[in-house]
Each structure stands twice: as C-alpha cells, then as structure tokens.
Amino acid sequence: MAASAQRNIDFYSVVLGQRVVKVTVNFDDPGTYHLYYGDQVGSPGTVMTHFPWQGAARGVRGNGEAVATAYSIAAASLDYWRERLSEHGFVPTESQRFGHTVLSAEDPDGTLIELIVDERAAGLDVPVPWPASPVPAQHALQGFHSVTLWVGSVKPIADLLVGQLGFEAAGQDTDPEGTRYRFRGAGAGVGLYVDAVERPGKPRGRFGAGSIHHVALRTVDDSEQAEYMATLKQAGYQPTPVQDRQYFHSIYFREPNGVLFEIATDAPGFDADESVDELGSHLMLPEWFESKRAAIEQRVPRVVNHEYNVEIGGGTSGRPVQAVSPAQSSESTAPRQPTQARDADTLRAGRPLSEARVALILVHGRGGSAADILQLTDVWNQSVYAYLAPQAPSLAGQGPSWYPQSFLAPVEQNQPALGTALGRLEALMAELAAAGIPAERVMLGGFSQGACLVSEFVARHPQRYGGVFVYSGGLITLEHSGNLAGTPIFMGNSDQDAHVPLERFQQSAALFTALGGKVDARVYPGMPHTIVQEELDAVGRMMQALAFESV
Q: 417-434 vs 449-460: helix axis angle to the nearest 10?
C-alpha cells in the first residue's frame, strides 16, 4: 500500500525504471487506483502492484505478512544501483544472504525493496526490456528474485509451499530477526524463491502505508488454478471463489501465520484492453465500472505517467501535463483530524473514517470478542471499508455479553443492559454520520447474540441501510413499524439451532420483509451454531455491491 499515487509512480517508474503497465482501480474499491509496474509487457515474475490510499498512515512490519520484495541484478550493476538510490535520496544498506550480496532500501512509504546480485537471472526471456526506461538496459532490474515473509512459525509455511504447492526446501541462513528459511519453486525463470524468517512470539504487523497486502504466485491457466484450489480445500485451507481481475484470474487464501497468498493465472494479460505500445497511458476500467467512469475519474487523484507526459485522473485524464500548485493538487498532505471523540471499547480496522466511503459495524456474540469477529474481514478482503467492532462488557458469571438472558426472554429481564447495547450502536452510527458516511453506506451485521442485537437495532431505527446481515440470530421483539426502503438483508440459520429457534428466525425474516427490506433468508439443515462459507460469500457480494454503488 502507498500513501501517494504520484510519489509511488515516481519511485517505481523513474527511480527503479519499471514501466507503468496498467493504471486501473481496485476492483473492490473503485475509488482507489491499482497501479501495476513491470517490464515492457508486464511479464509474470516482474509485476509489482500498489493501492495508493492518499495520506494513509504508515504501517508497522510484523509477523503474519510479507515484509520485503527482492529483484535480481547483475554483479556489474551493484555500484550503479548503490549510486542511483543515493542520488535520489534513498539510503541503501548492504548485506550477505545465502552467499549473495543484497542491497536494501525503503521506498517512500517504507516498503522494503531489495536488489540481490544473482547472475542466474541473466539470459532468460524475462524480463522484456523497456526501451524508454530511465535505467540503462545493462543495469535494468532482472525480474523478481524472492519475497520475504515474517512468521511466528515456519512449519505452516513449509506445509503449504512444500506439501501443497510443489516448492522444495532450499536451505536456511542467519538473519537479524531470526532464522531465514528458503523455499524454491519448481522450474526455471524469475521469482522462484520464498524466504520465511521465523520470529517466535513477536507481534503481528499493523497494516498501513508501506505494508505488503499479499503475495501472488503464478499459475498457467484456469484449469491448473482449479487443481490448486481443490488441493488447498482438501488440505483445510479456505480459498476464495475465483475473482476476475480483468488481466488475470485470482484466488486468495491465508496460511495459519496470517500471510495472505494469491494464485493468479498468466492470462489474459495486460494487453487485453491496451496495445503494448500504449500500456499505462489511460485509466482503464472493467466493463462493469464503465457506467461510473466520470465519477471515478473525478474521485481518483491526478497523476502523471512520465512515459507519455499526460495526466490521468482528477477529472483531467488525457490532458498534456500542466504545472499544478500545491493548493490545486488533489493529493492532500495535511494530517487527518478526528471528527469527534471515539468509543474506546470499539476496535477499528480498514480505512480510517476520514478516507472511507463505506463502513461495516460488526457485533460479536455472547462470550466472544470484537477481535474475534474482526477476523471475518480477512475472509472478505474488502479494503475500501472502515470496520468498527464494539466490545461487549463482561456481565457477572457470563463473560462478554450484550444482555444477560436469552433474546427470547421478556425484554425487561434484559434491561438495562439491552438499552445500553442498543445505545452503543446508535452512537457508532452517529459517529459515522459525522464523518460523512450516511446510513445508506453503512452495513451492520453480527453473529448469535450480536446478530439479535443488530436485528433489533435496525427494526427500531428503520431507514435505508447499506446492508444488514444476521448470522444465527433473530429479532428480540416482533412489534415494529417503519420503512427499511429496500435495505438488502441476509439471514442465515440452522433448522435445529438450540439458541435461535427456526420459527423465530422465520418470523424475523417475515417482519423485515414487511418493513420493506430486501430479505435473503437461508436455512441450513443440520448446521451447528456457527458461520458457513456460503454465508460469508453472500455477505462478501453485498459488500462489493455497496462499494460499487458508493462511487
């Protein structure tokens, strides 16, 4: 992730000499650029991509994420790159790794970039030289060498890479952070190595500018990807459905340390919508976003691709480059100011409110925690949202709970705790409204007792919401009036849930429908009191639809 689109382009295209092969948007967040850098044609094994969240706070490296990306360079280029990075204001450091010299520097957002002397990359068909690169051809980066992960335990990484994906263990080396283990992919070419540094007991990373969101592994085509998906499912991983990314098809999954992986196909390729000669010259949108082009062009900041010297985004796409004063620039460097005091007992993730267009309030169940339910956001992988998860207080003898009795008990038996809990949700909605995120761009959802609380809140405050989901829950009371104005509502429940009787679930679905909600209520025979993948997928689609509507 980057904090400035233009600064990101200037570093990767001008300093590193990588071609901007595609300027598009994050398909899960069409108000944010997705910038692709690579060789002349965007060959697999050369492409690094960035999501610029303008003004985003700096992330913190930690376990459960990739922390560095390494390119190969020729031995004769080491002095050139040491001098080039220094001339542009970056401070490279030098070290040895597996017998090879490593030159390391941070990009402007703190992403660690490494250049590794490795002559084995010479003579390959990839990378394809970019004739207009500001870096002389003899010193050009030679594609990816490796990626470095920080993990609490290397065993899950070995189980995944060696046990499921065809890698082989390739040795270990000392590292300032712990022991570095290397794994080598099958075949020849670039980008063959994954390094994992084992750091037991060290804290997890905090996502922000400079963080690496995920690591992509290539596969030849859809059929091979389907084989990997089947293998991963059988091994207990939970890969997402195939995502159409226009230039490739992707699945995503996390390994037990928390590292997010993508498996992406080589095809269709970056020339699917632009000729090779014009790659990176326009803001390219998938067909399903074309109807929103004018709004998207206005929302994304003005940037310049120096290869063509034309402006992109900011409402001026295609215009020859003109000087822009700081007062006119669409990129603000001013620090974000909080909109109002925040609830200290609410955990937050995703976009800061000052940057978000949509938000999701997540409510945990009895005995659960805000941290637990926030983990669902890893499954949905929707970076456009601000996530808010209130933490229930601990009630005597029960642990965290929103109210003491069953949701079917007389209301007075759950007071005053129930009223306080509903007030917490009302305060969060007010905070979002004050930050410029109205109810129609807010989703609310929960599991079990949290789902009951969300249901009751929505029924007592009927209006158009961005969406509602009820995982194994139902309404606390059944006498409500008002208009939900077509709010999409997903509800999922077992036919034999000991906590949420099927009859109450069906009554709740019927009442939401009568209030004008667009209800999708699903009953899962024999399902225990839990959340299943079909429910997660349904809510993921709701979230994507709302993100698109919000542009």
A: 70
Pair of tokens at residue 509: 């679905």
**Cα–Cα distance between 256 and 253 in angstroms, integer?**
10
- Rounded distance between C-alpha atoms, residue 374 and residue 447, angstroms: 12
Distance between CA atoms of 275 and 112, rounded to whole angstroms?
A: 32
Quote the pLDDT of residue 30: 87
CA 74, 78, 84, 90 torsion: positive or negative? positive
Q: Which long-range contacts (CB under 8 A, 24 or more apart) does 218-223 make?
A: 218/44, 218/45, 218/191, 218/263, 218/264, 218/265, 218/266, 219/263, 219/264, 219/265, 219/266, 220/265, 220/266, 221/265, 221/266, 221/267, 222/249, 222/265
pLDDT at 342: 54
The CB density around residue 355, as the number of other CB atoms within 10 Å, is 18
pLDDT at 338: 33
User: In this structure, what DSSP letter does residue 57 have?
Assistant: P
Place of tokens 């995703």: 350
For residue 201, give the nearest of 161, 153, 169, 238 by alpha carbon: 153
Task: Specify the pLDDT at position 335.
Answer: 30
- Within 8 A by CB and 6+ apart from 328, the residues are none
**Domain architecture of the chain: domains with CATH:** 5-271 (3.10.180.10), 346-549 (3.40.50.1820)
What do you get for the CA distance between the two ends of the chain, in Å?
Answer: 20
> Dihedral sign, CA of 443, 449, 452, 454?
negative
- CA dist 106 and 210 (Å) reads 9
Please check whether residue 521 is in contact with residue 506, taking contact to mean a CB–CB distance below 8 angstroms: yes
Q: In residues, how long is the chain?
A: 551
Between helix 502-514 and helix 449-460 the angle, nearest 10°, is 30
| Residue keyed to tokens 């709970």 | 401
Name the token pair of 278. 């014009």
pLDDT at 207: 86
Q: Give the separation between CA 129 and CA 141, rounded to whole angstroms.
A: 9
Secondary structure (DSSP) of 370-427: HHHHHTHHHHH--TTEEEEEEPPPEETTTEE-SSSS-TTS-GGGGTTHHHHHHHHHHH
Q: Give the C-alpha separation, 61 to 203, whole Å.
A: 9
Do the beta carbons of residue 272 and residue 237 sit within 8 Å?
no
- What is the SS3 assignment for 280? coil
Farthest-apart Cα atoms in the chain, separation = 79
Put simply, whether the predicted model's pTM sits higher than 0.85 gets the answer no
The per-residue pLDDT for 121 is: 66
Low pLDDT (below 70) residues in the chain: 121-123, 322-343
